[in-house]
Amino acid sequence: MSPLYKKLLLWFCAANIAVLLVSVFVTDRIGRHANANEPDWDTIARETLARYEAEGLLGLAAQHELMRRTRAMDVALYRDGENLMQRKPPPPLRPFLPQLLASDALVLQPGEGRWLAARALTTAKGERLQFIAFRGQRPQAARRDLLLLVQITLSVLAIAALGFVLARSLITPITAIQSATRRMAAGDLGARADVAASARDDELGALARDFNYMAARIETLVGQQRTVLQDVSHELRSPLARLHLLLELTRQGASEGGQHQLDRAAKEVSRLDDLIGEVLNLSRLETVLPGMTTMPVELIALAQAVLAEHALEIDARRLDVKVSGMASRVDGDAALLARALGNVLGNAIKFGAAGSVIALEISTEKGMACISVRDHGPGVPVAQLGQLFQPFYRGDNAARAEGHGLGLAIAQRIITAHGGRIEVRNAEGGGLQVQLLLPALQ
Question: Which domains does the chain have, with CATH numbers?
Fold first, then answer.
């Protein structure tokens, strides 16, 4: 259950429970206040006498039952000190009964919520009767508390059920949009909020539709950008190839002085050709890695193969590359992983101090295989570390070695496509340490 789901459900329940408790409290206080007020004894006495004169003892019994049920009141008529219905007075009334029978009009309140009253009455036939009434604590008070408890329990269950439905109806489209957002952030530009979320006729449905429209526009724009980039790269490579051929033909008939200029031109054309190739590769790696086939890859063997490819550069700079670590395997495309490691190692070779040591270490921790490459070069200013993976960014060390600023960007996209990540930091004692982290095979 998501935090927002819990928050909505709890707030909905809390608000309804608060309203319920307030209503119960107010209703109870109103009832207690009404019970605490002194009844209109004269009116009740007249009603009781009228019922007795009209219906006799049956009417008097019915009036007694009615008053007991509706007002928690015990009423009776006495003649010469005897109850006409031959009923014994309630225990709380008995100590005060002689005093009440001797008075024409008397009201007593022996305790909170208790009332005793007496009224002298005369029937239409001139018969003298004594009206005696007693109102005490409601006998059904305990039952009322139980009913209130049952009411609150059932209300809470109903509120929780309604809150569950409400929270679920709100969370479902939010979860769908969140899932689509994460897929899109991971590189799946075709991700969309599902139909159920976008079909809703409310603000969340409108949000899902707006997200889908935005995602479609981004997919279209990025697709157009990649297409243009790839087309331009392809179109540039054709005239560059022809220019290479023309330079070779011209070099054959050039003088000694012109030969030097032609060599410089050929070098610049080669650099431009390499740059366009790197841009084209970066464009292809934006989302789906072309021809990517995964299989178990042994990292130590991969590292040794990459070192063999860079042996000439390592020897030229008199570097000592030390490989250490344990056997570790990952699931991936060996060629692409070799390219990513090669780009990182190539930077270490270019920027490492001549005659220094490059440490290449392979380890496994918490289910992640790590290839660490550490050089002893100038390092990178801390403020620039986060920008190293931006295409064409070279930082303050650009003048130290040739390059286009695309190697780490390509390496990052390859590692990300394999479910891993790249971390970079300045090593203790100088130099830069780059770590390639990949999910390890058990």
Answer: 38-139 (3.30.450), 221-284 (1.10.287.130), 295-439 (3.30.565.10)
